[in-house]
Design goal:
Order of helices and strands: HEHHHHHEHEEEEHEHEEH
CATH architecture of the largest domain: 3-Layer(aba) Sandwich
Shape: elongated
Number of helices: 10
Structural class: alpha/beta
Strand order of the largest sheet: 3-2-1-7-8-9
Bound molecules: adenosine-5-diphosphoribose
CATH superfamily of the largest domain: TPP-binding domain
Distance between the termini: 26 Å
Number of domains: 2
Helix content: 25-40%
Amino acid sequence: MGLGNVEIMSTTAAEIICQSKLSLALTGAGISVESGIPDFRSRGGLWERFDPMEYGTISAFQANPEKVWTMFQEMEKIIRRARPNPAHKALGRLQHMGLLHTIITQNIDNLHQEEGATSVIEYHGNSKTLSCISCDRQYRLEKLGEEIPPRCTCGQILKPDVVLFGEAIPPRALRESHELASSCEALLVIGTSAQVAPANTIPLIAKKAGASIIEINVEPTLLTSSVTDIFFQGRAGELVTKLADEVEGIMNQS
Ligand code: APR
């Protein structure tokens, strides 16, 4: 019986990863859904419960920090309970095999780092630290008291070190991720709707540099028909694991 399409594609994708001199991954909220963290734009996603214009922008935070902190609190409760899932583990395996240079993540949940990833660029920051909106002093989330919104010793309110709409991407994250994307040979795009700039330019930069774009998502996205070379439709936990298993199989043969 001949190999089905997915088998052929998955072997090809695995061969691409094995032969690539520099492979990257770009991950979005979809990779953490199986860890219990809802994504933003699927049904039941965060933006269904919190209007992004009222809760997700820096101007909304400046106008009413107490209100935006109700969303931060909700996200923090969900993230605190979350653990890495097989997709995070599979990317960690690829990095430990030396076949995945860097994971560029749009997520703020720290799950790649918790699953042993050796190189992660946090494109939208990380929710584990907070900074004072006035004196910039930084705090670790676990060191904070019960007061909401939390305050700095200078008296001003603290904001999680995450990028809200209207804020700049951390300059180093922007520079490093775009430099890597312009010299990679393979880019895994996992669990992102690719609707938010400038993160969604990373696949375009990689494509322009001649990289193979391998996408994993439960549904087609804005990239699938025009940018993606190999599209695997399904859940990241199963498909990223399958890809890492294929890669490991090829590496063990060679
Ligand atoms: N496996 C694979 N893909 C999944 C899964 C899953 N188990 N569950 C959901 N997805 C897909 C969805 O189909 C969707 O395409 O993940 C994608 C999640 O898209 P978004 O919710 O838009 O999240 P993301 O692309 O990460 O959003 C980018 O927008 O709101 C801002 O700052 C926020 O970082 C976020 C950015």
